[in-house]
Each structure stands twice: as structure tokens, then as C-alpha cells.
Design goal:
The chain is 51% helix and 10% strand. The chain is α/β, with parallel strands linked by helices. The protein folds into 2 domains: 97 residues, no CATH class; 139 residues, no CATH class. The strands form 2 sheets. It has a 4-stranded mixed sheet. Strands 5-6 form a two-stranded antiparallel ribbon. Helix 2 runs antiparallel to helix 3, helix 2 packs across helix 11 and helix 12 crosses helix 14. The N and C termini lie far apart (38 Å). Bound molecules: S-adenosylmethionine. The site of S-adenosylmethionine (SAM) has 18 residues, from helix 9 and strand 2. InterPro entries: DNA_Adenine_Mtase (IPR051537), DNA_methylase_A-5 (IPR003356), SAM-dependent_MTases_sf (IPR029063). Keywords: Methyltransferase, Restriction system, S-adenosyl-L-methionine, Transferase. Pfam families: N6_Mtase. One of its GO terms (molecular function) is site-specific DNA-methyltransferase (adenine-specific) activity.
Length: 281
Amino acid sequence: MKKQWDKEFITLFNRLGGRRSNWEVWNDFLTMAAIAFANVMPTPERTEREDCYLSIIRSYEKEEQEIFPQLLSVVTMAFEENPKQDFLGNLYTALNLNQHQKGQFFTPYHICEFMAEVQNGGDLKAEVEKKGFISVSDPACGAGALLIAFANSARAHGVNYHEKVLFVAQDIDATAAKMCYIQLTLLGCSACIIIGDSLSKPGFHPDNEVYYTPMYFLNSWRFCEKTRTEEISANGAVAETVSEVVIEAVVSKPSVDAAEIREAFLEEADGQFSFDLLTAS
Ligand SMILES: C[S@@+](CC[C@H](N)C(=O)[O-])C[C@H]1O[C@@H](n2cnc3c(N)ncnc32)[C@H](O)[C@@H]1O
């Protein structure tokens, strides 16, 4: 019988709710999980994020601290078993957390699948082979359901989305953006998730915080080489141009040099991902 990972998550989650609201615990879980993934790479924000992580985990009792890695392992196992789902988005609604955001609503996954198929209807594989890679953007990404469906649809069309698709996501709501970041990380997407207002501060505005997936750093050079005759706009759309715009300069924040970070990572970690997940120290 298949394990019901959502029920498993809720049972564990409820054990953390005694002294705090579900909203606070949910946000603490997302922030720590996002930092655990983001801090695999030596980004400029690493120390600040580590401090944030420690201040959150230290606010919990010892027995409570031990529940957080279990929650993340449940999310990981859920995606391992079924990558075609919006696991965190569904839990967010099931736990009534969307009421905090005035009834924020995410698109049901089967609708996302339909939309991705409509988008990818032509010969996606041939298009990717011709262009070298494609990019996809959701400037109001929520928990990332549309992008998850896009990744699965690309795979069904014979496209290795880990290497051939650049995902760009933005949401004004940090809670939603972190859900998206965690899910796209677990699916191995090369992705940048931007926290900020897509209307007044689109893309890599200096006020926006950006989370890059580890896979992004490993693959950014692929997008770099292929875009010398293309320009990537803030929302990820690709337009032909005569200028020699290199995607890394456009897709990364000015403070983030993906090539340099990748080199430092390869040296430091010997090319191995090591997730020091949700530990207290
Ligand atoms: C209806 S949800 C859709 C989420 C996702 N695209 C989906 O289909 O499941 C709309 C999302 O847009 C975000 N949003 C609303 N106004 C925004 C803005 N100005 N900039 C960025 N995100 C915004 C909300 O926080 C919310 O997560």
C-alpha cells in the first residue's frame, strides 16, 4: 500500500503546534528547509542565512528540533514517489494556511498539467535541440505548481529538464516563493526564485531576495553559452537580439557570479552535494 505522505506530514507538523500558531511553524519550516538547500552553495548570502537558520532552530525545544528534518524527509519521499504533484501547495490549503493570505488559491495540479501540455504541444524536443535550451517563467508562481507540471511535461516530451530548461519564478509572498523553491530543488530544476513584486520590482531588482537551486549553479554555464544572440528579459522570456548578452549577467543578481560560486563549490565539496539538513548547532 502506498504511504500517505501528506497524512504523515500533518501528524508530525501537529506535534509542533502546542506553543505556536501553525502559520509560524509552517514559515519556520520553509525558511529552514530553503536555507538548508541554498547554503549548499557558497553564495554571498550564506552567512546571513545560516544565522537566520540558527536563530529559528534555537527557539525550539530539543525534541521539537528533531521533528524538522523528519518533515523535510517526508516532503522528499513524497516527491521521490510521485514527482507529479504540488505537495506543499496541497498541504498549505489542507492546513488552512491560505487564510492568512486572504484565501490565496493555487491552481489544481491537473489543470497545471493541461496548461503545460498546451504550452508544450509542438515538437518540444526539436525546439530544444535547435535552441540548446528553453526558459519558462511564472511571475506569480505560488508554490510552483505550473512549473512542476512544465518540468514533468518536458520530461514526457523527451527533454532533460534538469539541463535544458531554465526556470524563473517570482512571487510577492515569501511563504509561497519558499514553497516553490523547495519543490523545484527537490525536482532537480535549474531555477531562480525571486521574492518581490512582479509589477513594481520585476526580476533582479536590488530589493528582491533571490534563491537559486543547487542545480542552477551546476548548469548555468549551459544557458550562458547558448544565449550570446538572445536576450532574456526579467520574466524569463527569450527574445532574439543582436547584442551579445550572456544569461548569467542577466539572470543572476549582480552580486551573484554563478561560475565563481560553482568553482568554489567544486573545490570545497569535491563536487558532491551534501545537505546538512536542519541540524541544530
Ligand atoms: C492564484 S496564485 C497562482 C499561483 C501559481 N501560479 C499557480 O497557478 O498555482 C497567485 C499568486 O500570485 C502572487 N502575486 C500576487 N500579486 C503579485 C505580484 N504583484 N507580484 C508577484 N506575485 C504576486 C500571490 O502571492 C500568489 O501566490
